[in-house]
């Protein structure tokens, strides 16, 4: 199974591609950080991120795209840019029929280090060890994108079962809701 | 000049197309609300919004897309969906080379009603009057999208001069910054 993990952002958007699966050692395929100049127009920054991610999706054909679920913790302007970048990445995956999974920062930290409050240095160290890399991926956005991909490889068997159970219950419930959809 | 205004959202995304310009009465071209079911996957909801907006861009060929600038006021989940929807709309415009302008809710309210704190009913009433409509556009997202387009038509002469002045100063400043871009 191949996962493309994304630590979304406009100034720096980390993208990491990892192969693996339950019981397999994860292997690095590619990692890079897409950067766009803060002084550029937001729409063109989003276009630059989208075009680069689309090229990587077409090149590596991942089975799933795993994106960090953003919370409104830091300053509003940064969070909006991050959410917009996450949106265009999710759109690029949806256009290709590739499922998108969302993981919170604490889920990612817990998955790779066993500690949901791990700091950036611990996450980077664990990613370096798990992927058997000679040097730590830099900057932190690159390591975070790889951690997201690894997190998804390990959590996906559980998530797939959950999603299947949910979609069954949603499908079963939907006919009763159709009357209110047009409201 | 033709402006496509967008009140971004995943559950309801208002889109309004208006013709006009300085000294001209604004005229309604089209208004609609794109809806996506909350129980669907976010990536596919974004795809549904993107595809509908892209069809409208290709049909009406606006000179500018005006999008509401989102703030993190309400609940985090709603704001993230709104920012993601705004991102895919901005991306669709950028792909077509159509400039994107962002206006805050208070700028829009002030432009159409003269009061930056106007309520939804006042905005809807002014949009109905300004566009000489027989009935008020519904729901509020439709009226808000039209208000955004009208706001842009009236503010754009000033914004264009500002943007030109800014881009000149950014271009003048950029050579000095190149050394730090690759960091």
TrEMBL record, chains A, B:
Its cofactor is Mg(2+). Mg(2+) 1 binds at residues 7, 141. It catalyses: Endonucleolytic cleavage at a junction such as a reciprocal single-stranded crossover between two homologous DNA duplexes (Holliday junction). The keyword Metal-binding applies. One of its GO terms (biological process) is DNA recombination. GO terms for molecular function: crossover junction DNA endonuclease activity; DNA binding; magnesium ion binding. Its main location: cytoplasm. It comes from the Bacteria. It is found in: Cytoplasm. InterPro entries: RNaseH-like_sf, RNaseH_sf, X-over_junc_endoDNase_Mg_BS, X-over_junc_endoDNase_RuvC. Its EC number is 3.1.21.10. The keyword DNA damage applies. One of its GO terms (cellular component) is Holliday junction resolvase complex. Binds 2 Mg(2+) ion per subunit. Mg(2+) 2 binds at residue 68. The active site is at 7, 68, 141. Keywords: Cytoplasm, DNA damage, DNA recombination, DNA repair, DNA-binding, Endonuclease, Hydrolase, Magnesium, Metal-binding, Nuclease. PROSITE patterns: RUVC. HAMAP family: RuvC. Homodimer which binds Holliday junction (HJ) DNA. The HJ becomes 2-fold symmetrical on binding to RuvC with unstacked arms; it has a different conformation from HJ DNA in complex with RuvA. In the full resolvosome a probable DNA-RuvA(4)-RuvB(12)-RuvC(2) complex forms which resolves the HJ. The RuvA-RuvB-RuvC complex processes Holliday junction (HJ) DNA during genetic recombination and DNA repair. Endonuclease that resolves HJ intermediates. Cleaves cruciform DNA by making single-stranded nicks across the HJ at symmetrical positions within the homologous arms, yielding a 5'-phosphate and a 3'-hydroxyl group; requires a central core of homology in the junction. The consensus cleavage sequence is 5'-(A/T)TT(C/G)-3'. Cleavage occurs on the 3'-side of the TT dinucleotide at the point of strand exchange. Belongs to the RuvC family. This is Crossover junction endodeoxyribonuclease RuvC. The lineage of its organism: Bacteria, Bacillati, Actinomycetota, Actinomycetes, Nakamurellales.
């Amino acid at each position: 199974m191949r996962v493309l993990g994304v630590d979304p952002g406009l100034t720096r958007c980390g993208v990491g591609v990892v192969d693996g699966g339950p019981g397999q050692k994860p292997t690095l395929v590619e990692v890079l950080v897409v950067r766009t100049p803060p002084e550029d127009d937001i729409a063109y920054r989003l276009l630059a991120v989208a075009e680069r991610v689309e090229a990587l999706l077409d090149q590596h054909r991942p089975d799933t795209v795993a994106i960090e679920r953003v919370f409104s913790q830091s300053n509003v302007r940064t969070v909006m840019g991050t959410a917009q970048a996450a949106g265009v990445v999710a759109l690029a995956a949806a256009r290709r029929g590739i499922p998108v999974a969302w993981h919170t920062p604490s889920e990612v930290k817990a998955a790779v280090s066993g500690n949901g409050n791990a700091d950036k240095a611990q996450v980077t160290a664990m990613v370096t060890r798990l992927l058997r890399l000679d040097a730590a991926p830099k900057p932190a956005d690159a390591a975070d994108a790889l951690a997201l991909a690894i997190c998804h490889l390990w959590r996906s068997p559980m998530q797939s079962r959950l999603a299947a159970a949910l979609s069954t219950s949603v499908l079963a419930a939907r006919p009763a809701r159709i009357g209110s959809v047009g409201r």
